[in-house]
Design brief:
Elements (H helix, E strand, L loop, with lengths): L10 E12 L2 E13 L5 E2 L2 H16 L4 E5 L3
Parallel strand pairs: 2-4
Antiparallel strand pairs: 1-2, 2-3
Length: about 70
């Protein structure tokens, strides 16, 4: 697909680290599958991946994590 941000590059499959913050906690989900723009590096997650990333982050916050780095779990 064409990148909607830069409008110049095409996206390619890859993996990205997704940093999230909530209620003072910082959670980084490592190696989430994404489409990544070859020109500007902007990444796009599918709906399913987004739901999984958010669920993992919510679980970390629920456990009381202040800073946590976890691998993506499909």
């Amino acid at each position: 697909m064409n990148c909607v941000l830069c409008r110049q590059g095409q996206t390619r499959p890859g993996v990205v680290d997704v940093p999230l913050s909530r209620n003072g906690a910082i959670v980084v989900i490592r190696s989430a599958p994404a489409e990544i723009c070859e020109n500007c590096g902007e990444h796009y997650l599918t709906e399913a991946v987004s739901e999984q990333v958010l669920a993992q982050a919510e679980e970390a916050v629920r456990r009381g994590a202040e800073i946590e780095v976890v691998g993506y779990a499909a």
